Amino acid sequence: MNCYIITYDLKNSDANDYSELFEAIKSYKTWAHINESVWAIVTEEKAKIIRDFLKEKMDSEDSLFVVKSGTEAAWSNVLCKKEWLKNNL
Fold first, then answer.
1. Which domains does the chain have, with CATH numbers?
2. What is the mean pLDDT of each run of 10 residues along the chain (89 residues)?
3. Can you say how many angstroms the Cα of residue 30 is from the centroid of all Cα atoms in its chain?
4. Distance between CA atoms of 42 and 13, rounded to whole angstroms?
5. Which residues, including other chains, have CB under 8 Å from residue 5's CB and lie 6 or more apart?
6. Could you say which of 3, 7, 30, 54 has the lowest number of CB atoms within 10 Å?
7. Which residues contact 66 (CB under 8 A, 6 or more apart)?
């Protein structure tokens, strides 16, 4: 299993319009909401598969970035529990 970082810029200012995107991210068994537009998931899927799945839930002008997490990380004032990051990144 790998941890992937997901970040996006949503052009539509109404976050309620993106509930399908947020639910799609939460459909992964292990996930964390790190910052406003940054999430992490743990999965066996490849980045391209994740991107394609999530992009279906977004507007065509929105941007999306999915990257496999590396071995070193540091953070400050994140939304999720620090333990989640320590255990999964």
1. 2-88 (3.30.70.240)
2. 94 75 97 95 98 94 92 86 88
3. 11
4. 28
5. 34, 38, 39, 40, 65, 66, 67, 68, 69
6. 30
7. 4, 5, 6, 47, 50, 51, 54
Tokens representing 50?
Answer: 């994740």
Query: Residues 39, 89: contact at Cβ < 8 Å?
Result: no
pTM of the shown model = 0.86
- Tell me how far apart the alpha carbons of residues 67 and 16 are, in angstroms, rounded to a whole number: 25
| Alpha-carbon torsion (20, 79, 84, 49), positive or negative | positive
Task: Give yes or no for a contact between 73 and 3, defined as CB atoms under 8 angstroms apart.
Answer: no
